[in-house]
Amino acid sequence: MQLRCVDCGHAMPADVRYACEKCGGILEVEEPIGTSIGDHAYLRRTMWRYADRLSVADAGAIVSLGEGCTPLHRAKRLEASIPGFKGEIWIKDETINPTGSFKDRLISAAVSRARELECRGIICASSGNAGASTAAYAARAGMDAIIVVPTRTPEEKLTQIASYGALLVKVDGHYSHSYDVAIRLAEEQGLFNVTTTFLNPYGVDALKVVGEELAEQLGGRVPDYVLVPTGAGPLVKGVVQGFAERPGGRLPKTVAVQAAGCAPIVRAFERGEETVTAWGEPQTIASGISDPLIGYERDGSYTLRLVRQSGGLAAAVSDDEIRAAMSDLARMEGLLAEPTGASSFAAARKLIETDRISRDAIVVCMVTGHGYKDMKVFRSLPIRVSHLPAEPDAAQLASVLEAQAARRIKLMIVS
After folding, report:
1. Are 216 and 223 in contact, with CB atoms under 8 Å apart?
2. Which candidate, 316, 308, 328, places its Cα nearest to that of 259?
3. Per-residue pLDDT, 377
4. d(CA 364, CA 88)
5. What is the pLDDT of residues 336-377, one digit of tens each?
């Protein structure tokens, strides 16, 4: 096993490294040594069923809370809500990961590798989800952890991080400021940096399992499109790499989905550029993808390259489109998604309705984070509530039944 630069191709030992020593480029794991999980029945129900292809050599170092192997749901009611759509929409439900987001996949692998390398502690810059994941897996591993987040991180995510016992450090400004602080603290304190941009190659490498899971769950079929909520873009790499490494190597068209209020990769894609430039101040409810990429623009450029390699595209959605997708996922499919997680379906609907995705396509939407991560948006959405006194009379009970009947008629019209 070694690390190789995706830009200049320079190879380096697989130790604690975050960038190419020659050109500063992104590192990826090459020929991971892998391990056998043997009789560990628990691990066979997690992403570690693929341990022979991941970058941890000692099964005893694996830190798992049950991540991966998440369900893939056919969303027939969402399909029916899009006029003229005759294809398939599938939801890859990453919300059921142990801490509620797909970040558990990266962090499980990165913390396991940290144990294997005998690192003294870990640190993570996060907009919330990766921080919660890091704090939980550090607790599981018995390791010290520092989580660096923007001050405006949703309160639910801050509470989750703090509950696991990690040191929570709030930094004023957007995510890129937190990213910079984590880099400095990691260097000064000798901590293993598991920040979930492209910084930690061992964590990123684990995401290729997503592509493998999707192919298996679809019975070997390759979907036409996979839509991925995207900040820096490691999950885009996971989807592309996972399918590329399967027999035949056929790729789905991968769509990098960003919020209109923070869309550096989309901007470069639409301009036909090869290099992504940093965004200004993010303005979006989707905190998980509000990453302006300041100081690590190469991450965005690499993601853009992967999108084009797959024949895919990059698309931005507005906050209103995200809110509508959150509501529809919850009310039509019973899936509570945070704004970032819902952005994939928001983009799918937009691209289908504008004929950028054909109306007979097989589409997979990665729903990456649970709605409990950011309930503020749900609290702002209209809800239906009937209020009754402690001892309601017959007329008051009848009013509830009438309200339910009216709702049922409305749902029948929508369906």
Report:
1. no
2. 316
3. 86
4. 8
5. 999 999 999 999 999 999 999 999 999 999 999 999 998 988
- Model-level pTM? 0.93
CA-to-CA distance for 278 and 197, rounded, in angstroms? 14
Least confident of 36-45, 127-136, 257-266, 405-414: 405-414
pLDDT greater than 70 at residue 112 = yes
pLDDT in tens, 209-238: 999 999 999 999 999 999 999 999 999 999
Q: Please enumerate in sequence order all residues whose Cβ is within 8 A of that of 405, keeping only pairs 6 or more positions apart, or say none.
A: none
Sort residue 238 into left (φ over 0), alpha (ψ -120 to 50) or beta.
Answer: alpha
Q: Is residue 213 part of a domain?
A: yes
Q: Which domain holds residue 251?
A: 72-100+204-378
Give the C-alpha separation, 152 to 173, whole Å. 8
Question: At 223, which CATH number?
Answer: 3.40.50.1100
Provide the domain count of the chain.
Answer: 2
**Residue 362 three-state SS:** strand
Residue in 91, 61, 165 with CA at minimum distance from that of residue 337: 91
How many CB atoms lie under 10 A from the CB of residue 349? 23
- pLDDT > 60? residue 175: yes
- Token readout for 208 is 């290729």
Across the chain, mean pLDDT equals 94
* pLDDT computed for residue 414 by the predictor: 44
Alpha helices in 250-373 (DSSP H): 264-271, 297-309, 319-333, 339-353
Residue 40: how many other CB atoms lie within 10 Å: 17
Give CA torsion, residues 352, 354, 357, 358, to 10 deg: 80
Q: Quick one: how far is CA 331 from the chain centroid?
A: 22
Q: Who's near 96: CB < 8 A, 6+ residues apart?
A: 70, 71, 370
Question: Residues 273, 407: one domain?
Answer: no
| Of 347, 152, 351, 157, residue with least CA distance to 263 | 347
pLDDT digits (tens, 9 = 90+) for 97-109: 999 999 999 999 9
